[in-house]
Design brief:
Elements (H helix, E strand, L loop, with lengths): L2 H19 L5 H14 L4 E6 L2 E3 L2 E3 L4 E6 L3 E6 L6 H14 L3 E6 L9 E5 L3
Parallel strand pairs: 5-6
Antiparallel strand pairs: 1-4, 2-3, 4-5, 6-7
Helix pairs in contact: 1-2
């Protein structure tokens, strides 16, 4: 499955979850429910996947974790905050670069309209 197809399914599932639960819950709740929903669609989902930093050919485990990795291709970074800031976009782009993934989705569930707090970021596409 191509990254764009996966992305479409993730976004559809996120809208479903947001409609059902609404804003205001902890990020961990949205993460668990979205992972459950994606697995119902038959997608492979990893949660809290560690990503190392490789520097000077040395692998450093520094505690960076991807919220969701879908089909080993699309990184999903979830937030439940007042508003997304530029630093959140930079964080996701850095994760994409560190882990060598091409597509990431940044979603803030703490909003009345999820579409207004959803971004799609690419790394080298």
């Amino acid at each position: 499955m191509h990254e764009n197809q996966i992305s479409d399914r993730v976004i559809g599932a996120a809208f479903k979850v947001h409609t059902a639960l609404g804003p205001g819950l902890l990020e961990s709740v949205y993460e668990a429910v979205l992972a459950y929903e994606l697995r119902k669609y038959g997608l492979h989902v990893e949660t809290q996947k560690p990503i190392p930093v490789i520097y000077d050919e040395v692998k450093l485990d520094l505690g960076f974790r991807l919220d969701l990795l879908v089909e080993n291709k699309v990184v999903v970074e979830l937030k439940s905050i007042e508003t997304l800031l530029p630093v959140h976009h930079k964080q996701l782009l850095t994760y994409l670069k560190l882990a060598y993934y091409k597509l990431g989705l940044l979603m803030n569930f703490n909003t009345a309209l999820l579409r207004s707090q959803l971004s799609r970021l690419v790394n080298g596409l």
